[in-house]
Amino acid sequence: QVLNFLWSIPQLFKVVPCPKHRLPKFNPDTGLMQPSTFGCKSDQYRWLKLPGAKDATEIPNMTVINLCLQILGPMSERALCITLLGLQIVCCIFGLILRYHVAQFFFDD
Q1: Which residues of 91-108 are buried (b: 16+ CB within 10 A; e: fewer)?
Q2: Rounded to 10 degrees, what is the CA torsion of 52, 60, 7, 79?
Q3: Which domain holds residue 86?
Q4: Of 1, 2, 6, 69, which is most buried, counting CB atoms within 10 Å of its CB?
């Protein structure tokens, strides 16, 4: 949730457009989920665009779900769900390990 909030800050605080629906879109031709996008001019938001796509007129919405699709490519809804659950498990394990090691600085044995 923290990662999603941090990644979404530009859209949440209206630095870039925030469309009503930011969830991935389903492509009926391929049966796969793809990142949803918002339109812009080719010279706008250059700091958000990939190095090879400076002339792009669409930028993916800023959610962890869309980021996952950007990095891993289009995938089925089932595969996307499993991937996001895996990410959630990794983040929870990291949080528990961090809590275990940091607790010694705040609590007596």
Answers
A1: eeeeeeeeeeeeeeeeee
A2: -100
A3: 2-103
A4: 69
- pLDDT higher than threshold 80 for residue 52: no
Report angle CA 1, 24, 55 to the nearest 5 degrees. Answer: 105
- The residue type of 50 is L
pTM of the model: 0.75
Please name the helix (run of DSSP H) or strand (run of DSSP E) that holds residue 84, with its range, or none.
Answer: helix 77-103
Q: How far apart, in whole angstroms, are the C-alpha atoms of residue 90 and residue 65?
A: 16
Residue 109 lies in a domain: no
Number of independent structural domains in the chain? 1
Q: How many CB atoms lie within 10 A of CB 61?
A: 22
